[in-house]
Design brief:
The chain is α/β, with parallel strands linked by helices. Helix content is about 35%, strand content about 20%. It has 16 helices and 18 strands. The strands form three sheets. Strands 2, 3, 4, 6, 7, 16, 17 and 18 form an eight-stranded mixed β-sheet that branches. An eight-stranded parallel β-sheet has the order 8-9-10-11-12-13-14-15. α9 links the parallel β12 and β13. It is globular. It binds zinc ion (ZN). The site of zinc ion (ZN) has 4 residues, from loops.
Length: about 425
């Protein structure tokens, strides 16, 4: 008999997400490895075994206080948020109301809103202040079942301010339980002082920011907002190639408002993920089909902006493009960190099935941030990041909305929420 540090037993549904080591695509997106009356044995913060309760308890024993009876409950891997901008200062509820009243992007900018208004507040904040502001957000994310999150810089837009934001992410990772995967996004917008010198700003990102970030090992990825009026295809390519040379794997905000070829660029540079993709066309879809890129869909943003064109999740799945979901948590276009809300929107608006949506916030999201070696499934050797839900099934988790269904959150074998 082996000794376990933690045993979770009698889960009504244990969704292991076990299976291939690559992102799940097509029909595999709905294979979530359900075990009825399931159990998980945890040793040294890792999953030692997951299977039917009678088999696991025949092999593993734990102290009574280290056994959790999950009768009637769903148990899943901890959720992975593949896309957040959670380090920010200030909020933009005035802009939210202006938008509801029909204000245009330009009118919002003239009223002091938009990304640049957050840039002003982030530049004025110290690193310690940014950390202090982000800590309760991370605690709340954890309490809603998110145990790993990708986090982008991109509200600094100068070398020292981008470094400040990435150092804030590094410091947060040390003090909070959620695992953070840092992405450099100096190409989130062009700052005001470069408004008439956009090419010079691209040069600054390539020649100064990327080397500074890489040298300090502050980021895993380099991301760019490839969009009409922000960064063109050629500028995005130059930035992502420079990032790659410096060891930062490419990610891209693509086809959010106009299909300008961001999906094709993602395939061309071998991006780990292409994100948003609301307006992707058939050419973009075909390009992604051939490559390893994960499509990270962010339907919370479409919802929050009151838009009606959601990313074509069904087409991606039918064409065999792996789909992940993220919150896009940010103060301007999606003030939500709760992936349960995203599951609901993914089902009702993107017509994803509950199983496909769960894959999208676990194993495929882990692939979208190159963390699948450690998280995203409940298989031996993975980190014991587990959520026990008040819901009895994956279907129920997606069916009920507007309440927090995460009951117990376990991070690396420890109860954290
Ligand atoms: Zn984003």
């Amino acid at each position: 008999m082996n000794k376990a540090d933690l045993l979770i037993i009698h889960a009504a549904e244990l969704a292991t997400l076990r299976g291939s080591a690559s992102p799940r695509r097509g029909k595999d997106q709905s294979e979530i490895g359900i075990i009825p009356d399931g159990a998980v044995a945890v040793v040294d913060g890792m999953v030692a075994a997951a299977g039917p309760t009678d088999e696991i308890t025949a092999e593993y024993k734990a102290k009574k206080s280290d056994v959790i009876d999950a009768t009637g409950k769903l148990v899943t891997p901890g959720l992975v948020d593949a896309h957040t901008h959670l380090v920010f200062a200030g909020t933009r509820e005035e802009e939210f109301e202006l938008r509801l009243r029909g204000a245009s992007y330009l009118e919002i900018a003239q009223a002091g809103g938009g990304i640049l208004s957050t840039v002003d507040k982030v530049r004025a904040a110290s690193k310690a202040e940014l950390v202090k502001l982000a800590r309760p957000r991370l605690r709340a994310m954890l309490a809603h079942g998110t145990t790993t999150a990708e986090v982008k810089s991109g509200y600094g837009l100068s070398t020292p301010d981008e470094i400040k934001c990435l150092e804030a992410i590094r410091d947060l990772a040390k003090v909070e339980a959620v695992d953070l995967i840092p992405t450099f996004m100096g190409a989130h917008e062009v700052p005001r002082e470069f408004a008439n010198r956009r090419t010079e700003y691209v040069d600054l990102v390539i020649q100064e920011m990327i080397p500074a970030v890489a040298e300090r090992r502050l980021a895993r990825f380099c991301d760019v907002f490839c969009e009409v009026g922000v960064f063109s295809i050629d500028q995005s390519r130059a930035i992502l190639e420079a990032g790659k040379k410096a060891g930062l794997a490419p990610k891209i905000h693509a086809e959010e408002f106009k299909p300008i070829g961001g999906a094709e660029l993602a395939a061309e540079v071998g991006a780990v993920s292409a994100d948003h993709l609301m307006m992707v066309n058939d050419r973009g879809l075909r390009a992604l089909k051939r490559g390893p890129t994960v499509a990270v869909l962010l339907p919370g943003t479409t919802y929050f902006l009151g838009a009606t064109t959601y990313a074509p999740a069904r087409k991606f799945i039918e064409e065999g493009v792996p789909v992940a979901l993220g919150s896009d948590f940010n103060p301007g276009t999606c003030m939500n960190f709760n992936l349960q809300a995203i599951l609901s929107i993914a089902c009702t608006q993107l017509k994803m099935t509950p199983a496909e949506a769960l894959t999208a916030v676990t194993v495929n999201a882990a692939h979208a941030c190159a963390a699948a070696e450690f998280v995203g499934t409940l298989e031996p050797g993975k980190r014991a990041d587990v959520v026990i839900w008040s819901a009895p099934s994956v279907r129920y988790l997606c069916y009920q909305f507007g309440v927090n269904q995460a009951e117990t959150v376990i991070k690396a074998g420890n109860k954290v929420g």
